[in-house]
Amino acid sequence: MRVAIPLYPGFTALDAVGPYTVLAAAPGVAVTFVAAEPGPVRDEQGTLALTATASFDEPPGYDVIVVPGGTGTVPALSDRRLLDWIARADATTRWTTSVCSGSFLLGAAGLLRGRRATTHWGFTGQLAAFGAVPVEERVVVDGKIVTAAGVSAGVDMALWLLAEMTDEETAKTVQLAIEYDPAPPYEAGSAKTAPRERAERALSWVLRQTAAA
Amino acid sequence: MRVAIPLYPGFTALDAVGPYTVLAAAPGVAVTFVAAEPGPVRDEQGTLALTATASFDEPPGYDVIVVPGGTGTVPALSDRRLLDWIARADATTRWTTSVCSGSFLLGAAGLLRGRRATTHWGFTGQLAAFGAVPVEERVVVDGKIVTAAGVSAGVDMALWLLAEMTDEETAKTVQLAIEYDPAPPYEAGSAKTAPRERAERALSWVLRQTAAA
Fold first, then answer.
1. Model confidence pLDDT, tens digit, residues A85-108
2. Could you tell me the pTM of the whole model?
3. Which ipTM value was assigned to this complex?
4. Which residues of B touch A139 (CB under 8 A)?
5. Which CATH number fits domain B2-183: 3.50.30.50, 3.90.180.10, 3.40.50.880, 3.30.70.100?
6. What are the residue boundaries of the DJ-1/PfpI domain, all occurrences included (chains A, B) (predicted)?
């Protein structure tokens, strides 16, 4: 099975690497990183680059795509080559997926009209601008479109997706192989229970990265 | 605060990118990827490269190092430049940490003698070969040495570490920013409850990556 993860300047590394690690761990799954040109693409921090090995000009033909988010999503909304690639890739995928603000790129590619979809908790409502029905859930499935919430939600989505692509036992084996038995030291990851002041600070840190990208 | 993550051929991408994403999200924390030479370093799948921007020849001087694991750990155990860098970096760190089989590199650098430490569940006992006291916990702290269990445990470790480096509120704000409110579709990440057959298969998949690296 062929999976592609498109990269663009200012993506969030974990949005891409979380699902990559889950999917690529399964036998028979090949993951390709695609970008405007093959070569390194910088993330939103500007300090890490992941290397793409294929270009948006090549015919996609993937079974699954995973579009990462990141503060670079805002300029990427007017990146025609990226959006055209997403639309072309979607024409042949079995699953078209996104993590965090990657769902805005699905929206800009015209794929979310009338679809239930999610994104990072700070920006959920804005998905309506693309004709989507915003939903506050960790993983949202609507037909073949699967969207995950913020950053770390891509790992949970990828395990669900892998079970659909292969079978439940394969997904559970990968979960064990990567020892994904999460035990965060705090219960602080949900916006539903976060103090308002902390939520505002978290969003201001995200926006700070936008300025740096 | 300065954090370094050393890369070597065959590392596991999520071991590096999980902690990176947590730590770099906090204001005032700069993360540098270091390798034998600046440039792309391939992971254990061989399909993804992360770009290092500093070399093992430069004087370390970091407050924190995070050593990733991966199937490339085995050849890396005899990589003198990497091990010397770890030992030199450790001389000035406030925290010396590892994820997954990265703890074997701390061991080979002579840093685990008499220390409690952990690694991926499939290899915990083997830490004794480096004079360590193997412990089956998700995050193990012994003095300034902090070791995390397999792959995904690096995210949990990094949140704990960030609270120590800064304060609890900063760690909680980052956890919210990356929406780390984990909800895996299965309860299959712990070796303690896994069926033996699945555990054997999971390890064989890990070893298959060793062969590919």
1. 999 999 999 999 999 999 999 999
2. 0.96
3. 0.95
4. 183
5. 3.40.50.880
6. 1-163
